[in-house]
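To the structural biology subgroup,

Please find below the input and predicted structure for MFS transporter, which we are adding to the shared reference set this quarter. The sequence is reproduced verbatim from the submission form. If anyone notices a discrepancy with their own records, reply to this email rather than editing the shared folder directly, so we keep one authoritative version.
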Amino acid sequence: MTTTALPDSRTLPGAPADQHRWSARLWGILAVLSLVLFLDGLDVSMVGVALPSIGSALSLSTSSLQWIVSGYVLGYGGLLLLGGRTADLLGRRRVFLIALAVFAVASLLGGMVDSGPLLIATRFIKGVSAAFTAPTGLSIITTTFAEGKARNKALSIYTVFGASGYSSGLIFGGLMTGIGWRWTFLMPVPVAIIALVAGLSLIPRDRAASEGGHDILGALTSTAAMLLLVYDLVSAPNRGWTAPVTLALFGVVVLLLAAFVLVERRVRHPLIRLGILRKGTLVRANLAIVALFGSYTAFQFIVTLYLQSVLGWKPITMALALLPTGLLVALSAPFAGTMIDRFGTARFIVGGMIAMTVGYLLFLRVDTHPVYVLAILPTALLLGVGFALGFPSINVQATAGVENDEQGLAAGLVQTAGQVGAALVLAITTAIISSDDARSAVRSPAAVLADYRPGLIFVTAVALGGLVITLAPLLVRRAARQDALD
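Predicted structure (tokenized):
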């Protein structure tokens, strides 16, 4: 893939920038891409805050509310692999800007509908658009900035914006829901339009890959497998995990994945070069983001219901209570790249998972009359630390050592892992905490909290599992060095 050069000959995608001082246009490109990733994260968590209000306005049950989150995850997780590879093959600028325009239109429609199914449909469309903007934006970053200090700095800023979107969505969600739940859908529209106009001006034109064909069969089997897998995961709590339909769909997913592997082994220009999965750093990054995203998405779902439904807090009160999470993530942005250069990604990922795990553990102490400073604030602070340490480090590790023509693929893989992880953990958590909605309406806050507590324990176990997986290689290397010294 090649790109046109700027008049001042500064480097852009296709010729990674490694200069110590970036041009204004390079900063502008990074700002546009970061803003769009911020919107992706913002949209998920901001709408999550509005779920109780949406449920009341549209008469939706807890399981139906899950689909407002899961509809987005279905489109996002189901098409991320295709989105990342499409950017490599058809041109990153074109794919990014078209997907961003679709995101803006779907956001506008979501704020206008009066039907639960239609609202879920707009969420699915937004997820599909994010499946193209997220890996494409990341691949533009990694092909614009040379691997090493320049790329680490750019990725740290970029991914911290994404993490800030997830955490800041709680704040904006509280503010917008206080005005009306529809504003949680309408607010991203003007921001997306501004990013689109700026992207048209700043992101240089590029060309589609000149070599290789399009692996149509691979694209069809992988996309069908991911869509069906995410759909089965998010709908299984309603049908039952051992229901014949659930098991049959899982069987179809296995067959589709087997067919996909067979196709990729035989075609000349595969959609996914299977050899990339032998990179240990990439695999560990994918496992880490499953635990990070999965636990956080499910925790946010529970804490939103807990603070508003059990404690009776207003959305803005909840938003302010969780503000420290967003502040910590945002304030870490200027330092993340330098710290990753100094200490490496592995230690930061482990540190992030430790912070997340301890944060969830502390939240298990909550009751129906919590003291904010003792029961909620410590978790908010630790989750902010966990995201600030883990999120940028995972993305740096996932794309390190990957050739430019596979950066979209690597980005799509790690983001697919995060979304599939979010779908899986949220689906299981919802199944754990769901109870009869009519009966729950007349139950005491203590009884409802008792329903939520097993879900919180499961979320904590997911984070702990991620910690064990990411810590194990460090312990093995330390043991190997000790043996060498002995």
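Summary notes: The radius of gyration is 22 Å. The longest helix spans residues 445-485.

Regards,
Lab coordination
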